[in-house]
């Protein structure tokens, strides 16, 4: 207890030195914390992103504060009465009451959108589809009974298995509103965005190219193996790499298939002219326009394309129409827009899926460009 | 002997809730990584307080008591969840967050950032608006036109603000003035 009081006093001194001297007092912090924790504290108090995250969380909590107070007060009154008259029995009763009360809170997150019934599906054989629940730990077993890998929380990890001599594919389907990761048998990590499905061998074979197929959006961190090129097939585009990190987005409803290179080197080509390879450099985007059948290359801010991995939705000069598609996927909602003026309006915005729900998002857009809208379950109608 | 605890009445209870609820939720979230669950944890702690009706008398001791209670409740929850899910990673995470140094450093982050945010937020609105425009690169003259006030007012307001706020606070400023659209 004494220690934490000292820590509270330290917090006061740190904030005062930031407010008055523009610098947290490193020496003072060092009296209480080791290097790693010291850096963590300072970073959390001066880093722009960290500040923003924290601030938004605070606001989100503030929003439901009075509502939570009311609930607390309501519950409390009943408790007092029982406390007075029933003494010991009351304690049990209160316990029970609290439990019921908590279940109720969880069941009805005020007017938030209901979580969709859609689930992550893993197809391990022709008729063998497993439902993957986020956060669980379980083994992934082939139809033959062999253990292929393990699901650990929000990720499936495939083991290498030299016994497997032929290509066996698994297919993973991530619905709208969810994201999920897999680690392939070669150590390649794939982050899958909402509304994405991917087909991949449970084991890559020696001497063969490593090849996967994707529909939707994914970020690949490919394990280096110069003897086995890694190929991502997305609709009519193929991206070939040796070991590198890149993002590829190929949703059926989008007009372009976009590849953004973060690190390393990739070759892009398409089925219409497979010999016409385009080499992308880090920080560049190659976009294949489906109707024009042409690839455009341009320099981009890669952060805008990979923010989704950490739950960020970033828009820079995006038209409302483009924004709508991304919001629908990420929040698993359907947005019908009847406001013609709005369609091609351009927005800069940044949302954090873990902090802001779809109501918050709609409110924010509305503040910038007012329009009438209604949210009914997971339907949003704009007039 | 000095009386170290306080009998809580309704009014004090509400004041306690108002003063600490948000920070405690934020703090619990460092353990839980889930805002809704964090709210539940804090709510639970407040229910316990009302049942006991006693609370340390001194302000810092109250805070210390609350942070400790929220930490314990959060860890209880994580452990009971671990019992059900049994994943190595969760156990590692729990062990890490059980350490005293984790607890103390998160208290510092939540406490210090709250004080700073409050300080920036208490600046008068006019003052905030001027600083915001100036951070956007507008000259005093341009700001004067934008807000239809005299340039001398702007100079004094800026002086007030900068006396309180150093350059590092620029980020806090931008944050509080335009949280969503950067």
From TrEMBL, chain A:
Domain (Protein FecR C-terminal) spans 312-382
Q: What superkingdom does the record give?
A: Bacteria
| Cited Pfam families | FecR, FecR_C
Q: What UniProt keywords are attached to this protein's entry?
A: Membrane, Transmembrane, Transmembrane helix
Q: Which residues cross the membrane?
A: 80-103
Q: Where is the signal peptide?
A: none
What are the residue boundaries of the FecR protein domain, all occurrences included?
A: 173-267
Keyword Cell division included in the entry's annotation: no
Q: What is this protein called?
A: FecR family protein
Originating organism: Flavivirga spongiicola
TrEMBL record, chain B:
Limits of the RNA polymerase sigma-70 region domain: 16-81
Q: Which family does it belong to?
A: Belongs to the sigma-70 factor family. ECF subfamily.
Q: Which domain of life is it from?
A: Bacteria
The reply on keyword Signal is no
One Pfam family name is Sigma70_r4_2
**Keywords assigned by UniProt?**
Sigma factor, Transcription, Transcription regulation
Q: What is this protein called?
A: RNA polymerase sigma-70 factor
The residues covered by the RNA polymerase sigma factor 70 region 4 type domain are 114-164
Q: Which organism is it from?
A: Flavivirga spongiicola
């Amino acid at each position: 207890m004494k220690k934490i009081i000292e820590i509270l006093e330290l917090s006061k001194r740190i904030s005062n030195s930031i407010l008055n001297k523009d610098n947290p007092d490193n020496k003072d912090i060092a009296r209480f914390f080791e290097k790693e924790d010291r850096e963590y504290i300072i970073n959390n108090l001066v880093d722009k992103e960290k500040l923003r995250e924290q601030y938004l969380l605070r606001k989100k909590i503030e929003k439901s504060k009075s509502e939570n107070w009311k609930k607390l007060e309501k519950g409390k009154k009943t408790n007092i009465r029982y406390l007075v008259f029933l003494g010991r029995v009351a304690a049990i009763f209160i316990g029970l009451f609290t439990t019921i009360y908590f279940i109720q809170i969880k069941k009805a997150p005020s007017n938030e959108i209901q979580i969709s019934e859609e689930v992550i599906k893993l197809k391990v054989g022709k008729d063998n589809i497993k439902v993957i629940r986020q956060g669980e730990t379980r083994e992934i077993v082939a139809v033959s009974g062999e253990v292929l890998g393990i699901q650990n929380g929000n990720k499936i990890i495939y083991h290498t298995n030299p016994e497997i001599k032929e290509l066996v594919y698994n297919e993973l389907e991530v619905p709208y509103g969810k994201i999920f990761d897999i680690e392939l048998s070669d150590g390649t990590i794939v982050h899958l965005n909402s509304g994405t499905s991917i087909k991949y061998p449970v084991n890559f074979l020696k001497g063969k190219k490593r090849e996967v197929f994707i529909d939707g959006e994914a970020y690949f961190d490919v394990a280096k193996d110069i003897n086995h090129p890694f190929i991502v097939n997305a609709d009519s585009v193929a991206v070939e790499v040796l070991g590198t990190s890149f993002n590829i987005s190929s949703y059926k409803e989008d007009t372009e298939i976009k590849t953004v290179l973060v690190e390393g080197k990739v070759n892009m080509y398409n089925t219409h002219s497979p010999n016409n390879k385009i080499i992308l450099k880090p920080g560049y985007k190659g976009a294949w326009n489906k109707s024009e059948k042409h690839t455009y290359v341009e320099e981009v801010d890669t952060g805008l394309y990979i923010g989704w991995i950490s739950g960020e939705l970033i828009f820079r000069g995006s038209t409302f129409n483009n924004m709508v598609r991304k919001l629908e996927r990420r929040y698993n909602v359907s947005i019908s827009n009847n406001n013609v003026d709005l369609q091609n309006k351009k927005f800069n915005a940044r949302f954090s899926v873990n902090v802001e729900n779809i109501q918050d998002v709609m409110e924010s857009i509305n503040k910038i460009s007012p329009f009438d809208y209604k949210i009914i379950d997971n339907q949003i109608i704009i007039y | 002997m000095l009386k170290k605890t306080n009998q809580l009445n309704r009014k004090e209870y509400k004041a306690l809730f108002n003063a600490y609820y948000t920070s405690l939720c934020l703090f619990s979230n460092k353990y839980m990584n889930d805002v809704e669950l964090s709210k539940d944890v804090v709510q639970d702690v407040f229910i316990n307080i009302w049942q006991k009706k006693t609370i340390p008398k001194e302000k810092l001791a109250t805070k210390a008591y609350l942070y400790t209670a929220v930490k314990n409740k959060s860890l209880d929850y994580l452990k009971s969840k671990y019992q059900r899910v049994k994943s190595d990673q969760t156990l590692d995470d729990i062990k890490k967050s059980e350490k005293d140094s984790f607890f103390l450093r998160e208290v510092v982050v939540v406490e210090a950032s709250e004080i700073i945010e409050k300080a920036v937020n208490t600046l008068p609105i006019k003052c905030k608006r001027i600083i915001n425009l100036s951070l956007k690169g507008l000259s005093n003259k341009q700001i004067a036109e934008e807000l239809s006030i005299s340039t001398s007012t702007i100079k004094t307001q800026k002086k007030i603000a900068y006396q309180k706020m150093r350059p590092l606070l620029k980020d806090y400023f931008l944050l509080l003035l335009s949280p969503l659209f950067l």
